[in-house]
UniProtKB/TrEMBL annotation:
Name used for this protein in its record: DUF418 domain-containing protein
Keywords, sorted A to Z: Membrane, Transmembrane, Transmembrane helix
DUF418 domain span: 189-350
Domain of life from the UniProt record: Bacteria
PANTHER family: HYPOTHETICAL MEMBRANE SPANNING PROTEIN, INNER MEMBRANE PROTEIN
Species of the source: Pseudoalteromonas amylolytica
Transmembrane segments: 12-29, 35-59, 79-96, 123-143, 163-187, 244-267, 287-308, 314-335
Length: 351
């Protein structure tokens, strides 16, 4: 139970991070040198990566529970049904929110259904294969094909060729290499997450790798004195989300480990604390709030004519208001119901 509470809190933090990043994007915040802008930029690509890793953790727990009463083919079929539903919901949602991740989730779940019974070592090899596969495609194909990066619009997404390219290679969260996050989550869920020695060792390694990688990249960029004219080299010497190079995948995975294990550790100490319990409730309704932050949150911003030309302070304030509303709504909802509205609907459809 402690582990599950910690995971729910981590899921809530990932959701809050995605809300901040997406509100900043749609509100047209211009890049500046402020501390607030820098801090929020650190969340880009990391909150969503944590979200995917937590989905892998949840799938592993579901598979372990179902395997006690069902044969492995039925467990795989259960995951595959969820994949179909997520893919369908996500595609229907994409015209409203082009940066949607749900339809990618559907394909990640197909990968998960195939590897759910693999050994720990094999899972890590699959992660490496997905990451290397993307690098190979990047050397063969044009990553910018189909994109208008100034407006963040994918021009030919609804053609067969564009859809395949978008899903597999150069969309916002393509299967290569993003499915590696989900597979890594499955591997992570098999580890003794409640064991203090594992927690200490995992956090120490993750923090060391993260600091060494980010420091090395920063020193190389400073040494080479890169500017806006060195676009390709700047991308290679960064851990930014697009394109998702191995530096980004490793850096985001290390960040996710630190947040997840930190939340589990706190859950072991004070999971009955009111703030912690409220965050866990938000995590239990993460699917509902993910959809709501676009339909309701961004819909409200559009009604108030706030989509564009806003400051970073305004974007953070709006994101904070939505997150506080999510805490309040989750508390009221779970006082009467066992699951969120979309979570309950999802279970009924995939049952």
């Amino acid at each position: 139970m402690t582990r599950l509470v910690g995971i729910d809190v981590a899921r809530a933090l990932a959701l809050f991070g995605m809300v901040i990043v997406n509100f900043k994007l749609v509100m047209g915040v211009q890049e500046d040198d402020s501390a607030l802008y820098y801090i929020t930029s650190l969340l880009e690509g990391r909150a969503s990566a944590l979200f995917v890793i937590l989905a892998g953790v949840g799938l592993r727990f579901m598979a372990t529970h179902d395997a006690q009463t069902r044969r492995l083919p039925l467990v795989r079929w259960q995951i595959f049904k969820r994949a179909i539903v997520l893919f369908g919901i996500g595609l229907a949602y994409t015209p409203i929110w082009p940066a949607d991740i749900l339809h990618f989730y559907g394909l990640y779940f197909v990968v998960a259904a195939c590897v759910i019974s693999f050994s720990n070592r094999s899972l890590l090899w699959v992660c490496a294969g997905l990451i290397v596969g993307f690098v190979l495609l990047l050397s063969l194909l044009n990553y910018e094909q189909g994109w208008n990066f100034e407006r963040l619009v994918y021009k030919d997404m609804w053609s067969w060729q564009g859809m395949f390219r978008h899903l597999l290679f150069n969309g916002f969260h393509p299967v290569l290499p993003w499915a590696a996050f989900l597979v890594f989550g499955i591997w992570l869920a098999r580890q003794p997450l409640l064991d203090k020695s594992f927690q200490h060792a995992a956090c120490k390694r993750a923090l060391t790798i993260l600091i060494l990688m980010e420091t090395t990249l920063w020193l190389l960029r400073s040494w080479l004195e890169l500017d806006n004219t060195d676009k390709d080299l700047s991308v290679l010497l960064s851990s930014q989300m697009m394109p998702p190079l191995p530096t980004y995948m490793v850096s985001a995975s290390c960040s996710a480990i630190l947040v997840l294990i930190g939340c589990i550790w706190i859950a072991q100490k004070c999971r009955q604390h009111r703030v912690f319990k409220h965050l866990a409730q938000v995590g239990r309704l993460s699917l509902t709030f993910y959809v709501a932050h676009v339909l309701i949150g961004m819909g409200t911003l559009e009604a108030l004519n706030m989509l564009g030309g806003q400051t970073i302070e305004t974007a953070i304030l709006c994101a904070a208001i939505f997150c506080l509303a999510a805490v309040l709504v989750s508390t009221l909802w779970l006082a009467k119901f066992k699951a969120g509205p979309l979570e309950a609907l999802f279970r009924v459809i995939t049952k």
